[in-house]
UniProtKB/TrEMBL annotation:
Family the UniProt entry places it in: Belongs to the 'GDSL' lipolytic enzyme family.
InterPro entries: GDSL, SGNH_hydro_sf
Protein name: GDSL esterase/lipase
Presence of keyword Iron: no
Keywords annotated in UniProt: Glycoprotein
Species of the source: Coptis chinensis
Residue runs in coiled coils: none
UniProt GO MF annotations: hydrolase activity, acting on ester bonds
């Protein structure tokens, strides 16, 4: 019997957190409805948007990882999600596999190329404003901290995160920003916004108490014990796991996904802080969204 649910239902939509995600806060700031999930829905009204995301999805296809001996948990890659988008158009108009960092760094340029080609296709389909997020500080993830525990103190930064793993995230983000700069020159008519998830998210681990996350920044709210409350044999939602009393005091939900308050911090930083390139004028975007709604009603 499951002791708790690993995902919750927010206004009829499934979210692997205790509440809203970054995309939900952005939707609210724009004055639009929370975007329904494409996967598992039929006959939906996607006029206000649609969410093609799938928990644990990768940029590269499953075949690429299998060829390199890397195990992934889902086959809903970026290519699969983009194919869903293209199917919808007519109606609208891994580190745990034992690989070294060096081996995984060699894959990153391919990841960036895949993201770049998807952005180009979206622009070719008529997109004029795109937000592209960078990677989070994955070295602070309770799941990675558990699976990749080290006896070497030099492997950890002052926040208790795996420094070499965070450096991997930053390596990805730098290559991504370089490619976005190139795409801006190729497509000057499009606005390509880089959302620096890393810089805004790392604040949660640098200043957890000041931000109100006194329950734990590196431990999960829902888990099965251990130094980070993450247990691969008793994951959140399964027998042996329990959930914290006050989720709002924690950064992480289940070892992989974050809490609503943490997502809100990131979304607020992206929408009103210095964490996007170029900066977002949310007032203009929000007003345009409301005007479009009125003009179509």
């Amino acid at each position: 019997m499951m002791s708790t649910l690993s995902c919750v239902t927010i206004l009829t939509e499934r979210r692997c957190s205790d509440g809203r995600l970054i995309v939900d806060f952005i939707a609210e700031a724009l004055g639009i409805s929370l975007m329904p999930l494409n996967l598992g829905h039929s006959n939906q009204d996607f006029k206000q948007g649609v969410n093609f995301a799938v928990s644990g999805a990768t940029t590269l296809d499953l075949a690429v990882f299998e060829e390199k001996g890397v195990h992934v948990y889902t086959n809903y890659s970026l290519g699969v999600q983009f194919a869903w988008f293209k199917q919808l158009l007519p109606s609208l108009y891994a580190l745990r596999s034992g690989k070294s960092v060096q081996e995984l760094r060699a894959i990153v340029p391919h990841v960036i190329d895949t993201i770049s080609s998807t952005i180009t296709e979206l622009i070719d389909e008529g997109a004029v404003t795109l937000m592209v997020p960078g990677n989070l500080p994955i070295g602070c993830s309770p799941s990675y901290l558990t699976v990749l525990q080290s006896q070497n103190k030099d492997d950890y930064d002052t926040n208790g995160c795996l420094s070499w793993l965070n450096e991997f995230s930053q390596f990805h983000n730098q290559l991504l920003q370089n490619e976005l700069n190139r795409l801006r020159e190729v497509h000057p008519h499009a606005t390509i916004i880089y959302a620096d998830y890393y810089k805004v998210a790392i604040e949660l681990y640098q200043f957890p108490n000041q931000l109100g996350f006194t329950g734990g920044d590196l431990t999960t709210c829902c888990g099965g014990g251990g130094p980070y409350n993450y247990n691969v044999s008793a994951k959140c939602g399964y027998q042996g796991s329990t959930a914290c009393v006050d989720p709002s005091l924690f950064v992480n939900w289940d070892g992989v996904h974050w809490m609503e308050r943490a997502y809100n911090h990131i979304a607020t930083g992206i929408l009103s802080g210095p964490f996007t390139t170029p900066r977002i004028n949310i007032g203009c975007v929000s007003s345009k969204s409301h005007n479009d709604d009125h003009s179509s009603s």
